[in-house]
Design a protein that fits this description.
Blueprint lengths: L13 E8 L2 E8 L24 E2 L2 E2 L8 H11 L6 H11 L4 E5 L4 E5 L5 E12 L14 E10 L2 E11 L4 E4 L3
Antiparallel strand pairs: 1-2, 3-4, 5-6, 6-7, 7-8, 8-9, 9-10
């Protein structure tokens, strides 16, 4: 499969298992679920066209001489960019996969992080004035043991989606979610 030229060098994860059934060998190909869809070839391969998108819906495959419908293709792209998930899952995806597209912002409106590609996504830091002078086990490896807390608000189009408690460790050098 690696010898085939897939667009963007994104290959599906697969497994081939050979089963022996009544003196016959049957290859079972498993294509694992992935967020990197759609997969498509850069060059024609046999009856499969270059750039064509194939998919499986229920028990039917896209015919080799056709391509997926507009609706099927749209759903695959939405899956790739996590536009088919709830908003908090999308936040998690953007924080993990798009880390370089978040920008720290400090202005009259808020202090926090703004997703540069879509400023509807904001992570707002809200002081709650709590300082803890006790030592927590997760702070023992820090140089400075003092802790301070801050609410971390996940907002989409200025609607509050979720709030978690964050803790500044090492004298304010790192902000992490408070462990549960």
């Amino acid at each position: 499969m690696r010898r085939k030229k897939f667009a963007q060098r994104t290959y599906p994860q697969t497994n081939v298992e050979t089963l022996k059934i009544e003196n016959h060998e049957v290859d079972v190909i498993t294509i694992y679920n992935s967020d990197e869809v759609p997969f498509f070839l850069q060059e024609k391969y046999g009856k499969l066209g270059a750039g064509a998108i194939y998919c499986r819906t229920n028990d039917s495959n896209t015919p080799k001489n056709l391509t997926a419908t507009d609706k099927e293709t749209e759903l695959l792209w939405k899956k790739r960019f996590h536009e088919d998930t709830d908003i908090m899952d999308r936040f998690m995806y953007l924080m993990k996969r798009e880390i370089n597209n978040w920008e720290y912002v400090e202005n009259n409106e808020f202090i926090g992080f703004l997703y540069k590609k879509d400023p509807d996504f904001k992570i707002v830091l809200v002081d709650n004035g709590e300082t803890n002078y006790t030592v927590e086990t997760y702070s023992l490896k820090q140089i400075r043991l003092d802790l301070s807390f801050q609410s971390i608000q996940f907002r989409y189009r200025d609607v509050l989606i979720e709030t978690i408690l964050g803790i500044w460790l090492d004298g304010g050098r790192i902000l992490v979610p408070v462990p549960e």
